[in-house]
Design a protein that fits this description.
Helix content is 41%, strand content 28%. By secondary structure, the chain is of the alpha/beta class.
Length: 195
């Protein structure tokens, strides 16, 4: 069994790691993601770069406190037409985001970073292309009501592992990455490096 610290409060990331046989404990990094994102956006960083920077920041922050332990930082960025969208804080912002994505293509950049002794050991980023179906305003509102604000605040506007799959016409890429954990690539790293 592979021992790892997850530098995140994400319940779905924790579940995926456990499902794949990791002996994992979660210790949230407690960084101000919005402040870091805004700073990087001002410096014209791409969505790809921002997801990587956030995953690395989380991993190294926890890694510096738990020497000789493997720490995994993870982050994902939703990119629509070159703009980054954060997790909605209320139903109104969730509805606005869903209306923007409705019938359109957007991207998820999902990054993971392994750190030990405050150094980056390995990093990977997956890009997933999602095309949302054209949905009626009533369908979107009913869907968000069904999912609920607490889930939306924690996981974003759609849960690909649950009812969210019905929102999409097409998903090109790894569904685990949409959930914020490119687990296949992490498993490949361990197969190659942890013999």
């Amino acid at each position: 069994m592979k021992d790892i610290i997850l530098a995140s409060a994400s319940g779905i990331r924790l579940k995926i790691l456990k499902d794949y046989g990791f002996n994992v404990r979660a210790i949230p990094a407690g960084i101000d993601e919005d402040e870091i994102k805004n700073s990087l956006l001002n410096d014209r960083f791409t969505s790809f770069d921002i997801s990587r920077a956030l995953a690395e920041t989380k991993a190294k922050k926890i890694s510096s406190k738990f020497m000789n332990e493997m720490v995994l930082g993870a982050d994902q960025v939703l990119d629509f037409q070159g703009k980054i969208f954060n997790k909605p804080e209320n139903m109104e912002s969730a509805l606005n985001l869903m209306k923007k994505l409705n019938g359109n293509i957007h991207f998820i950049f999902s990054s993971i970073c392994l750190s030990k002794n405050n150094a980056v050991i390995w990093m990977h980023t997956e890009k997933v292309i999602l095309k949302m179906k054209k949905l009626s305003d009533e369908f979107i509102k009913n869907y968000l009501d069904k999912v609920g604000l607490e889930i939306i605040k924690q996981y974003g506007v759609y849960q690909i592992e649950g009812q969210g799959k019905e929102l999409f016409e097409q998903i090109q890429g790894d569904e685990y990455s949409v959930m914020g954990m490119p687990i296949k690539q992490l498993m490949n790293y361990y197969k190659i490096n942890e013999k």
